[in-house]
Amino acid sequence: MSPANGACPVSTGRLPMGMLDEVRSLLILQDRDRRLLALAKDLDKLPQDEARANAKLAADQAAVTKAHDALRDAELKVKKVELDANTRRTSILRLKNQQFETRKNEEFQALGHEVTRYEKEVDELETQELELMEEVDKFRKVLADAESAKKHTQGLIDEDLKSIRDRKERLTATRDEVREERAPLAAAVEGSLLAYYERLMKTKDGLAVAPMLDGGRCGGCQMKLIASTVVKVQAGTERATCENCGRILHNG
Ligand SMILES: [Zn+2]
Predict the structure, then answer these.
(1) Does residue 42 carry a pLDDT above 80?
(2) Which residues pair with 217 in a beta bridge?
(3) Which helix (H) or strand (E) holds 214?
(4) How far is ligand 1, taken at its centre, from the CA of residue 189, in Å?
(5) Tens-place pLDDT, residues 157-184
(6) Neighbours of ion ligand 1 (CB under 5 A)
(7) Distance 24 CA to ligand 1 centre (A)
(8) At what angle do helices 191-203 and 21-101 cross, to 10 degrees?
(9) What is the whole-number distance in angstroms between the Cα of residue 17 and the centre of ligand 1?
(10) Is the pLDDT of residue 3 over 70?
């Protein structure tokens, strides 16, 4: 049995009966605009993602700098000890020459004591130098480890940055496509209605056209609509707006 009253139960799909063409057009336009808003939001996040990726290197860089400074300090200590030892070696040579030249037994012995004292100091400095050279080796290893950790992190960051760049490219391409789709849709809407719609999009959280919900409430602000508005939305023969938020309503 076919429907006799003219109501077609299937042909309109999900689109409700009794919807103004202008509202239907705005719904399609709004779909594109909401996609553009979401894309813009995703694109806006990318610089932060980039900064976050780059910040990952800071700790590794700090470790490298610290290890580098520690190594340099240790190397300076070795140099200083070498210098001290050399000064004493020169003194020993000088004392030995004096010893060779002196004819006084007492002075010879006194110089001999000096030589012994310096030789002992040289021994101690040589021991110190060996210990410090071990330190240098240790810090060289710490620096190498820190540099390799930094390199590893840099590799991860490079991957992150590449994936961010790829995302940006994809998002931008999609945005350009949607913008192209949007242009003729917007051009097809009557000027003052388009201006009204665009103002709502800006001020009403990206939802200018809202469905009327069960119980006759506005799908945008949730307020209960007055009876005449509910009837208007159901009839779909003239434009209906929410008397609270101003959104354009549809019988969705
Ligand atoms: Zn409302």
Answers:
(1) yes
(2) 213, 224
(3) none
(4) 22
(5) 999 999 999 999 999 999 999 999 999 9
(6) 218, 220-221, 242, 244-245, 247
(7) 18
(8) 40
(9) 22
(10) no
Taking Cα atoms as reference points, which of 199, 202, 181, 179 lies closest to residue 191?
199
Q: Is the pTM of this model over 0.85?
A: no
Q: How far is the CA of 194 from the centre of ligand 1 (A)?
A: 18
**Strand duo 248-250 + 209-213: pairing:** parallel
Residue 143 has pLDDT above 70, yes or no: yes
Cα of 62 vs centre of ligand 1, distance in Å, is: 55
Which residues are CB-contacts of 91 (< 8 A; sequence separation ≥ 6)?
114, 118
212 CA distance to ligand 1 centroid (A)? 9
How many angstroms is it from 120 CA to the middle of ligand 1? 95
Unique residue bearing structure tokens 């310096």:
118
Domains in the chain, start-ordered, CATH in brackets? 35-189 (1.10.287.1490), 190-252 (no CATH)
Distance between Cα 250 and ligand 1 center (Å):
12
Mean predicted confidence (pLDDT) in 26-31:
97
**pLDDT confidence of residue 129:** 97
